[in-house]
Amino acid sequence: MIKPAVSSRNMMLVAALFWSGIGMLLMGRGWCLAGRASFMPPLLAMGVGTIKALLVLDRAARRNIVRILSLPERSCVGAVYSWRMWGMVLLMMVLGRLLRMSPVAPVLVGGLLLAVGWALLLASRLIWQAWRRFPVPS
Fold first, then answer.
1. How far apart, in whole angstroms, are the C-alpha atoms of residue 125 and residue 20?
2. What is the pLDDT of residues 122-137, one digit of tens each?
3. What is the DSSP string of the chain?
4. Hey, CA dihedral for 81, 55, 118, 89, is it positive or negative?
5. pLDDT tens digits for 51-73?
């Protein structure tokens, strides 16, 4: 069986790109929905997202860093997250889809997407810092 094995440094890069990329994607979608009304919903959402990042997602990012550091060198890129975390990602995708299809006001859905996206992007800074500290192979 073929497995896409990557170095620990590249695994950290994949994690940082995931967190940042998903965060920016959610922020873009959220801004399209919440930013049309006024600047207050986006500002409030980013405040909530900052609190979520500092109280919840920073801890998750640190656990992700420790997990990657504990993996053997040249692990499968899918091991960037545990099975439990991949399940959580899938659950969040389904819940997000259901929320966007629900009768909830678009400005509220957008605010939630913006808050979660900003929280992911802000917490990704820890993974980027860990990636930068990795020695570059010569």
1. 8
2. 999 999 999 999 887 7
3. ----EE-HHHHHHHHHHHHHHHHHHHHHHHHHHHTTT-SHHHHHHHHHHHHHIIIIIHHHHHHHHHHHHHSPSSEEGGGGS-HHHHHHHHHHHHHHHHHHHSSS-HHHHHHHHHHHHHHHHHHHHHHHHHHHHSPPP-
4. positive
5. 999 999 999 999 999 999 999 98
